[in-house]
Inverse folding.
């Protein structure tokens, strides 16, 4: 199906921009700050800036800036964690350019944690052979970074922010991007025209019963790009974080116990208090995440337990409160004082390594369509992401996408093409696009002849989502089987066909459509890869 919208969808307004960025996490914000100040840029967020995986990121940003570290060592660790599936050029760019972007964050007043000498406080996480992860707010790196960048975005006269704006479709003409269709505040549909669109919508956590992702992570950007014809790759590679805080109620969006807890001395133990990682990998508790997750699942199978534990009772309460204030308080809310009690944990869905295929400038297979952050597949993560490389990827490739747009528009201008008249929209917190940029909206049926006319109907979206989440959690989890994947693929296909046969102009409809679309793609890719590699582990 080419479009999620229906043929009779009513468009209230049309707006014109130079650059559209869908997503207000780290990748989207940093890309916006690197867009030329003479270009009109709009950032679209389904909720607010505090509702993203970036905001929730705890551990930090990996970069080779410590005195005993080098980009080559960071490169080696990244390639090793990625199980040989990484794009070497992309990884080289990541590790060599990343330190400069971290220094830029310092200049932008991101409050990184420093030691007593005024230098970065480094920690170590899984898969790293050096202490190279910088952090802020103890274990609130994402929150502190987003706060700092959003304040600067608010001061940029060329950037508009539109919250509560749900992406429905990416518009194209003759293989080139022309804009997007969005629904604003659960009400009006708008068309926003631009020749450059950056998808930075994050991950796909809501495809699973339990995930560290926020509720908005329904794969919207990836699914819309698929409908537009963009190439998708490596979506079978899904990272399950070994240490999600175990909660008997399983609320859906679960709390993550950062890998940095193990980096500071936390040990993984079973229900008998015995360490089980010592004979699994030379790095033991700090082995790459796919290895630790499989070891935990095996341990749970042997013991029939629901969770294992992190034991960091060797550290003082004062140290833990200072180093991990967010985690310490969340554990307390669950009746666990991590200074005296072991923390119950289990693997939960965390990160998508694949996504919309891009080159090292964020360009996709569609002219003018870019992707960065978790929604993109640059190839830097291979089959398994190295801890804390995700925020670095957002910075490096968000910046590179913006700079490529700047160069492309500059090159077009040099050929004599007239750029659109520049306006200076202000930062609009949860406000619509400036009326000065709007124009009358033509009927969709007169412009997009390929839009289907489907009967209007409201489905039981909660039930459909719950069924897909169970299928994905049962058959596309840490350890998979051929028969299980075949069954999941068949069942998801039936549900997707049901969704596509009708139309409902609600956000719930398009989110459910997106979940089914991406779930089918993941199950298909996993079924098609017969060998186990990295995070994709399959048994007969």
């Amino acid at each position: 199906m080419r479009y999620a919208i229906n043929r009779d969808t009513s468009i209230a307004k049309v707006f014109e921009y130079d650059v559209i960025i869908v997503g207000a996490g780290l990748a989207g914000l940093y890309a916006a700050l690197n867009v030329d100040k003479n270009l009109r840029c709009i950032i679209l967020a389904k909720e607010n800036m505090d509702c993203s995986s970036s905001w929730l990121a705890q551990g930090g940003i990996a970069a080779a800036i410590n005195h005993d570290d080098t980009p080559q060592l960071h490169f080696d660790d990244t390639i090793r964690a990625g199980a040989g599936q990484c794009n070497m050029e992309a990884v080289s760019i990541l590790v060599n350019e990343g330190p400069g972007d971290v220094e830029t964050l310092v200049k932008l007043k991101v409050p990184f944690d420093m030691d007593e000498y005024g230098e970065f406080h480094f920690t170590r996480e899984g898969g790293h052979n050096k202490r190279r992860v910088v952090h802020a707010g103890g274990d609130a790196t994402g929150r502190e970074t987003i706060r700092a960048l959003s304040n600067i975005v608010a001061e940029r006269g060329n950037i508009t922010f539109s919250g509560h704006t749900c992406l429905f479709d990416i518009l194209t003409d003759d293989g080139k991007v022309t804009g997007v269709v969005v629904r604003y505040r659960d009400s009006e549909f708008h068309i926003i025209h631009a020749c450059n669109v950056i998808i930075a919508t994050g991950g796909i956590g809501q495809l699973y019963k339990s995930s560290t992702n926020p509720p908005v992570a329904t794969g919207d950007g990836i699914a819309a790009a698929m409908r537009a014809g963009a190439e998708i790759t490596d979506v079978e590679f899904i990272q399950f974080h070994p240490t999600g805080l175990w909660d008997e109620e399983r609320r859906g969006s679960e709390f993550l116990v950062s890998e940095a807890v193990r980096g500071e001395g936390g040990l993984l133990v079973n229900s008998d208090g015995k360490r089980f990682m010592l004979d699994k990998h030379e790095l033991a508790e700090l082995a790459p995440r796919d290895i630790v997750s499989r070891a935990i699942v095996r341990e749970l199978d042997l013991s029939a337990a629901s969770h294992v534990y992190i034991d960091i009772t060797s550290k003082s309460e004062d140290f833990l409160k200072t180093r991990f204030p967010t985690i310490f308080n969340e554990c307390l809310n669950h009746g666990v004082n991590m200074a005296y009690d072991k923390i119950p944990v289990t693997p939960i869905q965390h990160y998508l390594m694949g996504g919309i295929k891009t080159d090292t400038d964020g360009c996709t297979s569609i002219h003018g369509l870019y992707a960065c952050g978790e929604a993109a597949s640059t190839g830097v993560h291979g089959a398994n992401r190295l801890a804390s490389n995700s925020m670095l990827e957002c910075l490096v490739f968000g910046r590179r996408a913006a700079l490529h747009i700047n160069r492309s528009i500059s090159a077009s201008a040099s050929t004599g093409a007239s750029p659109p008249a520049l306006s200076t929209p202000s930062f609009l917190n949860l406000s619509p696009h400036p009326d000065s940029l709007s124009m009358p909206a033509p009927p969709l049926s007169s412009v997009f002849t390929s839009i289907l006319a489907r009967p209007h109907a409201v489905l039981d979206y909660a039930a459909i989502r719950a069924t897909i989440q169970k299928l994905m959690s049962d058959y596309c989890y840490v350890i998979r089987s051929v028969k299980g994947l075949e069954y999941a693929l068949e069942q998801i296909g039936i549900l997707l066909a049901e969704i596509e046969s009708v139309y409902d102009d609600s956000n719930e409809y398009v989110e459910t459509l997106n979940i089914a679309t991406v779930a089918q793609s993941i199950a298909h890719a996993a079924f098609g890869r017969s060998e186990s590699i990295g995070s994709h582990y399959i048994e007969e």
